[in-house]
Amino acid sequence: MVNYQRKTLKTGDFQTVFYESGASNKEALIFLHGSGPGANGITNWKNVLEHFGENYHVIAPDLVGFGETEIPENTDLGFWQWTRLRVEQILQLMDYNGIEKGTLIGNSMGGIISLHAVMHSSDRFEKVILMGSGGAPTAVPGPTPEIVRMSGFYQNPTYEDFRNLITWFLYDESVLGDELESIIKQRYEIVMQPGYKEIYPKLFPKSPFEMQIPTSALRRMKQPMLLVHGYEDRFVPKESSLSLMEHLPNAELALLKECGHWVQIEKADRFHEILESFLKRKEQVR
Length: 286
Hints:
The protein is an alpha/beta fold. The protein has helices at 41-52, 79-96, 109-120, 145-151, 159-167, 178-191, 196-199, 215-218, 239-245, 263-266, 268-280; strands at 5-11, 14-21, 28-32, 57-61, 102-107, 125-131, 225-230, 251-256. The protein has one domain: Alpha/Beta hydrolase fold, catalytic domain (Rossmann fold). Helix 1 links the parallel strand 3 (28-32) and strand 4. The protein is globular and about 50 Å long. GO terms for molecular function: hydrolase activity.
């Protein structure tokens, strides 16, 4: 395992915090977290920063609106505007680090951002990995009780309620032991920072249709794509990945039993194996 570093970069009118490992390696992996309260690059991707940094240049940013990245001056943005701002944030990070082409790995909302990045700048991305991703263009089950509680977290932002919410991301929280408490504590400190209670409701779409990627766009995405989904995911049910598979022309899907929304944490070793196999394959963009 290798060590990672916390860094900052001015992107647009705000400072981006990002985590990096394996900077001397040629192939780049950009890991994008989801939209749960307190979401950030390090609690989502600590394991991959240490594991993949041995052979890859790994970057995991705190996407704008989350983590320790500075809140921009203008927060009166719609969902698509927030998404475009994050795509631009990713491209600026790539430019700063001299990354002409990279592979995107997006969890949940990070998957939606990954798909938007391919729509915006397809030539910058070799492959795409979507984990528990949103963005499905066809009917999937409506918002689950877990999603409703997540989006309304600040109505009662107690530590106890936050702890309950975080455990719901997992099929069996006992597999993490003490690591889970560390994640909960770190994310709770973030959500209680000044300004986050006000900005959090603005980060979600007014309609679930805003999150859907048009089928016309999906079928034009020629990159090799790997979809990974926890079979028992209650935040983004597996039907979302099944729907995406209907339209992506160059994709495969791995479903993992006894696994929730955080495959990379709950099934870390298997997640690493699946990604390594996919990344080492020499298949190119069609």
